[in-house]
Write a structure and sequence with these properties.
This protein is an alpha/beta fold. The chain folds into two domains: 148 residues, Aspartate Aminotransferase, domain 1 (Alpha-Beta Complex); 243 residues, 3-Layer(aba) Sandwich (Aspartate Aminotransferase, domain 2), CATH 3.40.640. The chain is built from 15 helices and 15 strands. A seven-stranded mixed β-sheet has the order 2-10-9-8-7-3-4, sandwiched between helices. Strands 11-12-15-14 form a four-stranded antiparallel β-sheet. β3, α8 and β4 form a beta-alpha-beta unit. α3 packs antiparallel against α8, α4 crosses α12 and α7 packs across α11. The model has no long low-confidence stretch (mean pLDDT 94). Bound molecules: pyridoxal-5'-phosphate. The site of pyridoxal-5'-phosphate (PLP) has 13 residues, from α7. The site of pyridoxal-5'-phosphate has 13 residues, from α7.
């Protein structure tokens, strides 16, 4: 090829720069526009202090053990034997002592018998979720999800081009008959489930169904991704063995988070899987984040070592029990006739189904802005996964009770209940 003159190459370079000025973003970014927007709402800070925020999925301020964390961090960073471990690179799979504490204190008592080698420490629960999806799923694969499901998980599935199909639930979680029918129809690669105090519904999958799901995973060669961040926040009833505890095939992958039981900003979670799967997830961690930050891991490991974790989960259950009760009482007392709600035995969320025909999405901004109401909630419509031709479900909402005290919950239910009752009356009169 003839050499370009200086002038020609300058023109060429300019044209190249102009063309390169706005390189196209990945196509997947177009594909997730809707779900990304819905997820931003979850993180939205509502500036008006008068608005009662039933939206907040984070723990109560009092539930974060900040004094213990501050003390432990100071002790570790001031100790010549500890500070370098906190601030240097660490092992990809996570701090061994922390993984041992998780195996011994959090998993074995619940019927999941694994060792530290079966556990990877992740960046929050969402870190484990994202990496597991990357390791197990191809674009075009089908994942079955509970209907409704966690909308941040929907975003991850959308990001990787995975087709989601919803499975019906009742008060005891996933309905097995519907699950099996959909396994046969869609040949899914994975079932994604939040079995305990589900986000958004607050429902819990029964023991029998957990056992059956583990069996189906084996029978149909399907992964089960069990996402269980709320299980340790139980304020009524007795613990139920995780699906992983019934897993004979190794197809069940368990992920969990310390965001609700310790501190969400520390971004700590973990993943439990068979070696053949865990090793691949570890490879993804090497490629994408090297490892979970060490300072946080060292703090949490020390928190376990000092024997503080068991009391922490008891303490936070005591905070949430009366809040949940206040919310359920408030819904029963003030919401329109015909409203249904779930009865959570733990976790942070209650799911409300208003009478047929109501539209929580359409009413949201008015509910937030009307002076006599000023309440915010998460609308239910986007938490459902629809197949072509499905009618959208518009009359549901998620109310979170974790971050607001009982008196505010009662006041909020009164205001929101009156607002929704008025809207319901208007709707009936317009029919
Ligand atoms: C079901 C579920 N999975 C995962 C997460 C994410 O947890 P983390 O904040 O630890 O990433 C949440 C948080 O709300 C959740 O509800």
């Amino acid at each position: 090829m003839a050499e370009l003159s200086k002038k020609e190459s300058a023109v060429d370079a300019k044209a190249y720069m102009a063309a390169a000025k706005e390189p196209a973003l990945a196509k997947r970014m177009d594909d997730i526009v809707g779900t990304a927007f819905d997820n931003r709402i979850l993180f939205e800070k509502i500036p008006d202090p008068e608005v009662i925020k039933f939206t907040i999925g984070s723990p109560a301020v009092q539930a974060i053990p900040h004094e213990d964390i501050a003390k432990i961090a100071t002790d570790l960073l001031n100790n010549p034997e500890n500070w370098l471990e906190c601030l240097g690179y660490g092992p990809v799979e996570g701090k061994r002592e922390l993984r041992e504490s998780i195996a011994k204190e959090l998993l074995a008592p619940k019927g999941v018998h694994v060792t530290a080698d079966d556990i990877l420490i992740t960046v929050g629960g969402i870190g484990g979720l994202g990496m597991t999806v990357q390791a197990c799923m191809n674009a075009g694969d089908v994942v079955l999800v509970e209907n409704p499901t966690f909308i941040q998980a929907e975003l991850i599935f959308d990001l990787y081009g995975i087709k989601q199909v919803g499975v019906d639930m009742d008060e005891n979680g996933i309905i097995i008959e519907d699950l099996e029918a959909k396994i046969k129809k869609y040949n899914p690669k994975m079932l994604y489930t939040i079995p305990t105090f589900q986000n958004p519904s607050g429902r819990t999958l029964s023991r029998e169904r957990r056992e059956k799901i583990a069996q189906l995973a084996e029978q149909y060669d399907m992964f089960v991704l069990e996402d269980d961040p709320y299980r340790d926040i139980r304020f009524h009833g007795t613990d139920i063995t995780p699906i992983k505890g019934f897993d004979k095939s190794g197809n069940v992958i368990l992920i969990n988070s310390f965001s609700k039981t310790f501190a969400p900003g520390l971004r700590l979670g973990y993943c439990v899987a068979e070696p053949r799967i865990l090793q691949k997830i570890i490879d993804i961690s090497i490629a994408t984040n090297s490892h979970t930050p060490m300072l946080q891991q060292c703090i949490l490991a020390e928190y376990f070592r000092r024997g503080l974790f068991a009391n922490q989960v008891k303490r936070i259950a005591d905070i949430y029990r009366p809040r949940c009760q206040a919310l359920m009482d408030g819904i029963d007392k003030y919401f329109p006739e015909g409203t249904k709600r779930t009865t959570p035995e733990g976790g942070l969320f209650c799911w409300v189904t208003l009478p047929e025909g109501m539209d929580t999405e359409k009413l949201l901004m008015e509910a937030r802005e009307t002076p006599e109401c000023k309440c915010a909630y998460i609308t239910g419509e986007k938490s459902f996964v629809y197949q072509e031709g499905d009618k959208h479900i518009t009359n549901c909402m998620r109310l979170a009770y974790g971050a607001i005290d009982e008196a505010t919950i009662e006041a909020g239910c009164k205001r929101l209940g009156a607002f929704m009752t008025k809207k319901y009356e208007e709707m009936k009169n317009n029919k």
